[in-house]
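ok new one. same drill as before - structure tokens go in, u give me an amino acid for every spot. 280 of them this time. try not to just spam alanines like last time pls lmao
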């Protein structure tokens, strides 16, 4: 019997230097590949986290062209892995916005899927002066992404999307089996909700979740929660990076998932269907 293929999640504390970040993430991806990973998931904003969100506008790339896309493609091909490229800024429909795009590359370095972050983080954190308004610089996506990979049908979501279970329920209509969730949860929200939400999405969908996060202190003064994890369809945490920079790698046992879905068939017991509203 063939051994299960392995998935990896990368954790970083990204700063404002793209070159330095790419050197670091390349090292971590290489570590994951050497650990036997077939699929590697990077955190949200893996290449750049500047002093303010507007700095992303200067890095926005057109589809199919740009140094960040080239980095992801070249790295995937050189190491022979599938790579979920966290998020990078891509050109939007208007010049003063970007799309926060998670690109999926196969082992030949070909882009096979793209997901644009749908839910934007416009919040004030209770009891603090922390405020975020991603919609000031980002344009939301309007469609979900599920793609065939060697490890199964992969759905992609980003950070704040984790709080909207209807997105993942619609992925079930597309046969999703595992989820890649690049993220950068704040220290406050991460402590309160990160593990609960990641495990809930795994349990609800009887899916593996590879949740790759930012984790640590950033030069712009922000603190992110970290705790990147790989969770199985029963909600068990298989591997985790608590804080700082690191890589986790774990087998994705499709036989176990099939067994759980067969013996505990909650997905077939659904009585209501969640549908996203059509874009206008």
């Amino acid at each position: 019997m063939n051994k299960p293929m392995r998935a990896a999640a990368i954790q970083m504390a990204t700063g404002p230097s793209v070159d330095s970040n790419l050197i670091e993430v390349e090292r971590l991806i290489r570590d994951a590949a050497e650990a036997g990973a077939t699929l590697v998931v990077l955190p949200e904003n893996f290449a750049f986290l500047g002093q303010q969100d507007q700095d992303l506008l200067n890095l926005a790339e057109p589809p199919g062209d740009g140094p960040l896309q080239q980095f992801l493609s070249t790295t995937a091909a050189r190491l022979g892995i599938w790579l979920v490229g966290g998020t990078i800024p891509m050109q939007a429909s208007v010049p003063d916005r970007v799309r926060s795009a998670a690109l999926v590359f196969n082992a030949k370095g070909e882009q096979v899927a793209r997901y644009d972050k749908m839910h934007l983080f416009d919040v004030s954190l209770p009891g603090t002066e922390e405020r975020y308004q991603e919609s000031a610089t980002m344009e939301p996506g309007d469609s979900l992404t599920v793609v065939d990979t060697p490890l199964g049908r992969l759905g992609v979501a980003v950070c704040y999307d984790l709080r909207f279970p209807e997105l993942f329920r619609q992925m079930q209509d597309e046969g999703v089996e595992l989820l890649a969730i690049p993220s950068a949860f704040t220290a406050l929200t991460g402590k309160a909700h990160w593990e609960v939400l990641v495990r809930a999405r795994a349990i609800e969908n009887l899916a593996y979740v590879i949740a790759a996060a930012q984790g640590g202190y950033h030069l712009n003064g922000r603190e992110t929660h970290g705790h990147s994890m790989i969770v199985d369809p029963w909600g068990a945490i298989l591997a985790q990076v608590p804080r700082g920079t690191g890589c986790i790698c774990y087998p994705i046992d499709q036989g176990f998932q099939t067994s759980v879905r067969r013996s505990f068939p909650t997905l077939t017991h659904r009585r209501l269907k969640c549908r996203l509203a059509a874009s206008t």
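The chain has a mean pLDDT of 94. and btw Residues 187-205 form the longest helix (19 residues).
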